[in-house]
Every structure is written in structure tokens, then in C-alpha cells.
Amino acid sequence: MTIVADARPLDLVADFPAIPEGWAYLDTAATAQKPKPVLDAIAAAYGETYATVHRGVYQRSADMTLAYEAARRRVARFLNAGSADEIVFVRGATEAINLVAQSWGSLLKPGDRIMLSRLEHHSNIVPWQLLRDRAGIEIDVAPLTEDGRIDLDRMAEMLTPRHRLVALAHVSNVLGSILDARRAATIAHGVGAKLLLDGCQAVPRLKVDVAALDCDFYVFSGHKLYGPTGIGALWARPEILDAMPPWQGGGAMIDRVTFERTTYAPPPARFEAGTPHIVGSLGLHAAIDYVEAIGLDAIHTHEAALVGMAREALASINSVKLFGPEDSAGIVSFAIEGVHPHDIGTILDEERVAIRAGHHCAQPLMDHLGVPATARASFGVYNGEQDVAALIRGIERVTRIFA
Ligand code: PMP
């Protein structure tokens, strides 16, 4: 294997107690391992500082409320949102998209259209299908280019003034392809549609600035950003959030409740019914601090070098077929002729290499690629050249076993 590029080593594996020596964890696109500062923040939040938010008159609860709102401000700063009020805490990207589909989607009329793409994760397909069945809207699907990017030229030709929303992955969880989000916004706005970006795979590896991207909604999950599970964020333009009706009812989202009539709190509280994931928000705050201290440019450069090495080495093995563009962000999907991806995953596991094998919640994309599943290696800040080398050794063993 030839090592290309200058994989500026981040050498951060010591920050991750869950990664033992000699284990190549290459499944960060599914979920990232957690650094010590995040684990410490979670322990402290459930430990010596634990209390509820919003309702308490005692000091501990007031402090926790401040910490919860500080986490919201941290997410706003991370995305360059105009204000913390534009950030709604959710369970993750799936919940964020369901929130938009149910709340903003209730404002749509029969015959309105939504544009998705062929590479979307099921969480950016199924909520829109549920809305279609409820509200009589139509869904269109933008095709992909040969190298696995959303074909924005074709999408522009397909868009009409009936389109109210374009909802696209900022980075594909299978192909790693990076969307030209700024151009997608211009195209969507050209027909009066809004742009929703699914940023799950983008926020851990690209600097995201919602103002510069000019999108209308941005969603992500904390657990792929080195934070806890069960917490994520929805950002939307304030005038859009203001016009959106509640989607779940309960405590904390109200202004005044009587049996005759209830009035609702302004955003973001309007969309956060019930006791929130207090600890999750504090863990997410720590995760954002961690990632930004490393720097997203450094992370991107590091992962790009690892992707380059992995792609070059895999391409030199005859039976390997690579998917996605050369410049994919942190993610390499591949198949080996005559070997089911699950067998690849099992043999690699014996070599202490953890990859993902399956449809990656993107069955329409698998249909497009003409495969039932792919093997996927995805990188994080803790990976290095040794992990790529372990992957390639494992793949060579797979090809020997199945030769
Ligand atoms: N979109 C993309 C691109 C993803 O990679 C994922 C997670 N695999 C999701 C959405 C859904 O995220 P979650 O399950 O955390 O809600």
C-alpha cells in the first residue's frame, strides 16, 4: 500500500476510553465514539449538578436552566445561527425532520411538491411519505451523477413553482459526497421553495455556516458529532419557526392552558414539549467545544487524507468496487465481487476492524447502485494510517478466503 498525502496526524485516540489499543473503529458515520470531556460533562450533569430545568425556583435548577440555555447558544454559534431562539433541541436528525414534516408540513396544500434525492437516508424520505399520505402532496426525486453526487442541473430542470421544499443530505452517509449546498439553495429559492439540509454527516467534518449556506432548515444528530445519543438540533429561520404550529403538546411548550383554549410559547419552547434531554444538551455542548478546539478544517484535512489512502489502496485490489466520488468526506463505500458485505464485516471484525455492512438506511440508493448492501468504512478524529492499514490487511484476507 502506498501512503499518499500528508495525513496530518491528529493523534487523539488517547482521548477516547472506549477505543482499546489495536481496535480500528471505522464506523463513525453510524455513531462516533465519545471523548473524555464529553463523558465528564455527562457524569457531572447526572452527578453533582443534576436537577431539572425551567421549573425549579431553587438554585440548582436555576443553574441547570442556565447550562441548558448555554448549550443552545453553543449550538447556535456552532452553526452561525442568528440567535439561540432559532435552535430547537430534538432527539436527533430523525426527530428534527419529523418535526418539520408534521409542523411546517401541515401548512402545505394538496398538489404541493417536495424534492428529495436518490441518496437520502430513510429519515429524509419516510417522514415526507407520511406527509404525502396525510396531506396529498407529491414527492419528486432528484437523480445522481455518475460519481454519486446529487445532480443539481437535473434537479433545477425538475423544479416547478409547486415545489415548496427541497430536502437534501449535506453529505451522503453512504457515498460521502458533499452537496454544493449554496447552489442548492439558489436553485430551490429560484422557484420559491425552501431548502432543508440533513447535516448528520456534515457537522462532524465540515464547517457549517447556515447564514452562508442560505438554507432554511438545518438538522443534525449529536451522537455523530462525538456527543451523546438522544440529542440533536433543528435550526430554522426565525420567521419560519414563528409560523409553525406545535407538533407535540405537553409541559413547557405552552403560554396558558385552560380547558377551553391553550396558547403556546414562542419558539423554540413551542417545539420542546416535556422535560428535555437536559444531560444530552450538556454533553453536546462539550462535544462541540471538543470538535471546535481541534478545528473542523483540521478534521476535514485529516479525514480527507485517510479517505485518499483507503480509496487508493482499495482501488488497487482487483475485485473491489468503490462507490462515491474521490473527494468523499470521511466515508468510503465499497463492494467485493462475489462476497456479501456482511461476510466482509464479519471477517474484518475477526481482524479487530469495525466497519458497517448493510443498506445504511438508504435502500433507494442501494437500488440505484444495483447492490443489496455495501461495506462502509468511515473515519473520525481518532483514526490514523494504522487503521487504514488494518482495513486493507483485512480486505486482503477476505479476498484470499473467497478467492
Ligand atoms: N441522515 C443521515 C445522512 C444519517 O447518516 C443519519 C444517521 N445514520 C440520519 C439522517 C439519522 O440520524 P439519527 O438516527 O441519529 O436520527
Short description:
The chain has 403 residues and is an alpha/beta fold. 37% of the residues lie in helices and 16% in strands.
Task: Spell out the key features of this protein.
single chain; 403 residues; alpha/beta; Aspartate Aminotransferase, domain 1; Aspartate Aminotransferase, domain 2; 2 domains; seven-stranded mixed beta sheet; four-stranded antiparallel beta sheet; 13 helices; 15 strands; disordered N terminus; binds 4'-deoxy-4'-aminopyridoxal-5'-phosphate
Folded structure, characterized:
Its EC number is 2.8.1.7. Residues 25-391 form the Aminotransferase class V domain. Its cofactor is pyridoxal 5'-phosphate. Keywords: Pyridoxal phosphate, Transferase. Catalyzes the removal of elemental sulfur and selenium atoms from L-cysteine, L-cystine, L-selenocysteine, and L-selenocystine to produce L-alanine. The protein has a seven-stranded mixed beta sheet with strand order 2-8-7-6-5-3-4, with helices on both faces. Helix 1 (36-46) packs antiparallel against helix 9 (278-294). Strand 5, helix 6 and strand 6 (194-198) form a beta-alpha-beta unit. It contains 13 helices and 15 strands. The model is unreliable at 1-7 (pLDDT under 50). The relative contact order is 0.18. The two termini are 20 Å apart. The chain has two domains: 13-33 and 295-401, Aspartate Aminotransferase, domain 1; 38-293, Aspartate Aminotransferase, domain 2 (3-Layer(aba) Sandwich). With 403 residues, the protein is an alpha/beta fold. It has helices at residues 36-46, 59-79, 93-102, 126-135, 152-158, 181-190, 210-213, 238-243, 278-294, 296-315, 341-350, 363-369, 385-401, and strands at residues 24-25, 87-90, 113-117, 138-142, 163-169, 194-198, 217-221, 232-236, 254-257, 262-264, 320-323, 331-336, 353-354, 356-358, 374-378. The chain binds 4'-deoxy-4'-aminopyridoxal-5'-phosphate. The site of 4'-deoxy-4'-aminopyridoxal-5'-phosphate has 13 residues, from helix 3.
